[in-house]
Amino acid sequence: MLSFLKNKNLYIHLLGWLVFIALIGLLFFLQNGHIPTTILLKIGFGVSLFYINYYLLIPSLLFKRKFILYFVSILSIIALTTLFYTYTKTYFFHTFHYESSHHVHYKHHTSSKFMLSTFIYMILILIGIAVKVLNYWNKDEKRKLKISSNRTQSELQNLKNQINPHFLFNSLNSIYALTLKKSDKSPDAVMMLSDLMRYMLYETDIEYVSLEKEIAYIKNYIALQKLQIANSDTIQLTINGNPHNQRISPLILISFIENAFKFGTDFSGKTKIDIDITIKQEELHFSCKNIIGNTSEASNKEYGGIGIKNTKERLKLSYPDKHWLTIDKDNHTYFVTLLLKLT
Question: Which fold does the domain 153-341 belong to in CATH?
């Protein structure tokens, strides 16, 4: 019972009927100077006709494209309702003498009264169709939006799942290179990888994460990569602005940075990577520039491979019309610039 009373559609229908009754009453008052009591009886039959059409005829006939059968059914039910109303009104007046003498002419069914009843019932039929179609369209739009949202979230999750193994394999290769050299940095590398994996597994399953945490993740990733580079002084990360209270889609920048290390380092000590992250109000400006150290691999493969491809797809899904990405290169350098609207 309480759930029924909390149904907002109930109050919308009640309000609609009050407005309809008020308009019909005003129409009669302006034409005749009074509001006949029989109009309430007429509207009562009209309400029954409305809900028969609304809950029965429209879903079972009109929405199933049985137009002829629906049209015949509507005409039949209007005729029956009008006749039933006429006989009910006549019996009501003859038995109880409810109307005063100057309303006696309402006892007799005339063609004009029949046309008036038919007109009112046709209005109710059209209102019922309009309301039902509007509700159907609204529910269909909500259903489509929900399907689209679920599909988008599923696509985003699939893209993240593809990026994570890509990152893991690259990091394991880095640690493997250190172990081959029997480097004392190997234990630190394992701990860094553990921290990075913890963040990726437990904190990136939501749509947006804290920008501060994402930047901390990037710093750890760069620190891990530096362990295997002989001269890491030429690797620069610059953070400008305040990331506090800002949020970002998780792991959206890491593919560009991974790519910089992939192509910007030839493990011979020649490394040059400049990464800049600037936060201005509700915008994030990201730039990454690296020399093309491994020129043979860079010339044989598309820039970034699956990681960059997935990131581009995620940007389209997470930041539609809110991002601007440029990837370019010359003979010696890759350039990546990205502008994100964080809100």
Answer: Heat Shock Protein 90 (3.30.565)
